[in-house]
Hints:
A: about 0% strand; B: mainly alpha
Amino acid sequence: xxxxxxxxxxxxxxxxxxxxxxxxxxxxxxxxxxxxxxxxxxxxxxxxxxxxxxxxxxxxxxxxxxxxxxxxxxxxxxxxxxxxxxxxxxxxxxxxxxxxxxxxxxxxxxxxxxxxxxxxxxxxxxxxxxxxxxxxxxxxxxxxxxxxxxxxxxxxxxxxxxxxxxxxxxxxxxxxxxxxxxxxxxxxxxxxxxxxxxxxxxxxxxxxxxxxxxxxxxxxxxxxxxx
Amino acid sequence: xxxxxxxxxxxxxxxxxxxxxxxxxxxxxxxxxxxxxxxxxxxxxxxxxxxxxxxxxxxxxxxxxxxxxxxxxxxxxxxxxxxxxxxxxxxxxxxxxxxxxxxxxxxxxxxxxxxxxxxxxxxxxxxxxxxxxxxxxxxxxxxxxxxxxxxxxxxxxxxxxxxxxxxxxxxxxxxxxxxxxxxxxxxxxxxxxxxxxxxxxxxxxxxxxxxxxxxxxxxxxxxxxxx
Lengths: 227, 227
């Protein structure tokens, strides 16, 4: 699969990303007020949606692990959490850059910003715990965290929204009120990010499986296969 | 139900005998209250700001006390394989979880019983008539803290971390409780009752949060105490 990804996946993704950048900068029209700074939106929102998708996958994997104790649930779970963290880092990095030009401030206590930050911090905690445990205890603890954090996200989202009601209304699904060409570029970006997310998770979960197999081999050699 | 009561009684007797835990957490939250009141001293005299300070001081003190309390209550059982013995004695994991949560809640309630008057004195609260209603809000908050604290402490103590690891895990999870608690307390201090729909809404959020996390955590707790 790795070879397939190298020979087919990377070239295709590269071409698609080049196309995406062309669409963002040349195909989609320039925003009237925000000018070029609005272009970051195509990356920012796409990364945010992918991050939410990643943590949802981790949540489902958490349940999956408790229902059917199969290793694959744990592998995919850690993979999605890590990839999700990367995408949330993109969101948190691009957000303030845009906010500085659009709102004239790096940071504001908008529900979206706070939720994303909390989300990020939760899953950093997840990785800290994961690093200090091993074996079944680790899988159980991680599944529990993936589930509890997963439930917490919508609650946090709503509570912060109600706490700060001043946030700009985006009116339903993101992108529905965009100019048609912008909308096409936007959804293309989103799909592309998700398309990038899938092989990343697949590769990372294979790495996790390989790491586990390696550890098992080590143990076998140390204890003469009596385990 | 009898198991639950027996376990709670056991834990409380244990705490009552030494008194060390209660005393140390109490001093700790007292210091938190003192420091936060000191840090915001300049706003005293301003009614609206004053209310804000009291509400946030109370809840931050509760959050910190909750982190310390939850760790200790679980740690006792980790020592000398007590958890295993309890499981061998035929206690169901959900009952064990509920018992630990109850003990935690009772301890936190005890701490609040001592901390609230001190906060009122330090921060110059005008009325004591709201105390029953305040107790109700605090009860909802304490339930949330204990529900999340107990399950996360089971993870953090297993990972060999103590309060620092637990705070990484639960403080982001507790954002809805903190927001809800602070907002409800603020309206209570300003109006003396839960009259406006805003505070009713926050109370509902707290109730929903408590129920959801108690339910989910009691389901996953079983896997977290397996050795």
